[in-house]
């Protein structure tokens, strides 16, 4: 069951409050999990229990996604807007430089948190920000198509599709290499999360000019990429390694853009190794 935390943040209009939904389980060193655009914290469900055996796991609904409401007026959905909110969230939850793992948008945020030395390690799984202009346009086009589909399909049609492996492939095959492994309830819930999120359009708009160009020398960084990622192609991982030469680049064989469901044991092992 998710909890919520309300905490103060600085905005162009002065001090305001942000509200974030999160789930916390396990014990040990703190480990924060950040999902991708249009998704929600339940993306981490396949690995959260494994990680919680060794870590204090905090899975977060990013502002404007899942059960977390939109950012206050005037706060942008770019790195300069969202990263300070995450820093304030860490403070509100009494997390002193946690390990952070992020997927896609969450991976980009995790790398920026490392650049700003707000974390003790970063694991970025298929992070955004290492694309060419053409690759970004392709990815954004696919994401907009997914959003249009989620907006236009009645809930009854989603439920009907989610009951079959072929239907789950139609709904979620873009992000999972093995969408048939995702449960019908999970596919319905993430389709609803994509339909209802308030942060989708402003996040895409903010991402139009994003490139991650910072070397990160003093925080351990792992970059992991699924070999069957159809959204952010795996050659972008090679570019990430060139930008961050000290990073460990890990292949996730047979995994798609959101690999936690494709191979939970492998992804959990990569995360635990990276946070030791």
UniProtKB/TrEMBL annotation:
Q: Care to name a GO molecular-function term for this sequence?
A: hydrolase activity
Keywords (A to Z) from UniProt: Hydrolase
Pfam families according to UniProt: Abhydrolase_6
Q: Which InterPro entries does the record match to this protein?
A: AB_hydrolase_1, AB_hydrolase_fold
The coiled-coil segments of this chain are: none
Q: Which Gene3D superfamilies match?
A: alpha/beta hydrolase (3.40.50.1820)
Task: Give the AB hydrolase-1 domain ranges.
Answer: 31-269
Instruction: Report which superkingdom the organism of origin falls in.
Output: Bacteria
The name under which this protein is listed is: Alpha/beta hydrolase
The species this protein belongs to is: Streptomyces telluris
